[in-house]
Amino acid sequence: MKKTALITGASSGIGLEFAEIFAKTGNNVILVARSGDKLNEIKKHLTETYGNFNCCFIKDLSKPNAAKELFDEVTSNGFKVDYLINNAGFGDNRKYLDADFEIHEKMVKLNVIALMELCYCFGKAMCERKSGKILNVASVAAFSAGPYMSVYYATKAFVLSISEALSEEFSEHGVSVTCLCPGPTETNFGAVSDFGKSNAFKYLG
């Protein structure tokens, strides 16, 4: 029986690569992102290329209760998620006081709150059936403070910290939690966040 991977931020970049990898290795894929047109194109490509079952959920996870809504919609449609890939996130490259506070707040809601809630909802279901794997995507930014991207670095430090803690707790139930901390990567994230101008990209790229 094929297993199912749910991937947030699946419309481009690292999330899209994960979708390709999971489909290529014989898994069904649930694609989650805000971009409906892109997701439907990816769904069509994966299905035609690999012959597996794929579906899309159009969801802005920075919105209040969006993560819980996603869990409810996935489960009500009868899907059992074996692999949860928490990849959705964004950054902003400028001084803390130069950005509207709403940008910082939205970043925390997406990078932290949504990830927490998805780990809670899907993680609880996994622990109850004693099987499943969760991968949270953080960054090398998780290992230091980041002037000019202060909130982004802080959110990724949180992702790493909670991943390490949940790895210990969930392991008692046969569920693994891991954390990916990639360095600077050429994706749409970099263009949106203007990450290419940051010190991290200059010195770590």
Terminal residue distance: 41 Å
Number of strands: 6
| Estimated helix fraction | 40-55%
Low-confidence spans: pLDDT under 50, at least 5 residues?
none
Strand order of the largest sheet: 3-2-1-4-5-6
Cα-atom Rg, whole angstroms? 17 Å
H/E order of the elements? EHEHEHEHEHEHH
How is the main sheet built?
6 strands, parallel
Mean pLDDT: 92
How large is the count of helical segments?
Answer: 7
Overall outline: globular
Work out the strand percent.
5-15%
Structural class: alpha/beta
Walk me through this protein's architecture:
By secondary structure, the chain is α/β, with parallel strands linked by helices. The mean pLDDT is 92. It is built from seven helices and six strands; from the N terminus they run βαβαβαβαβαβαα. The relative contact order is 0.14.
Task: Please describe the topology of this protein.
Blueprint: E1 4-8, H1 13-24, E2 28-33, H2 36-50, E3 54-58, H3 66-76, E4 83-86, H4 101-129, E5 133-137, H5 150-171, E6 176-180, H6 188-193, H7 199-204
Parallel strand pairs: 1-2, 1-4, 2-3, 4-5, 5-6
Helix pairs in contact: 1-2, 3-4, 4-5
Overview features:
six-stranded parallel sheet, 205 residues, 15% strand, 6 strands, alpha/beta
What is this structure, in a nutshell?
The chain has 205 residues and is an alpha/beta fold. It has helices at 13-24, 36-50, 66-76, 101-129, 150-171, 188-193, 199-204; strands at residues 4-8, 28-33, 54-58, 83-86, 133-137, 176-180.
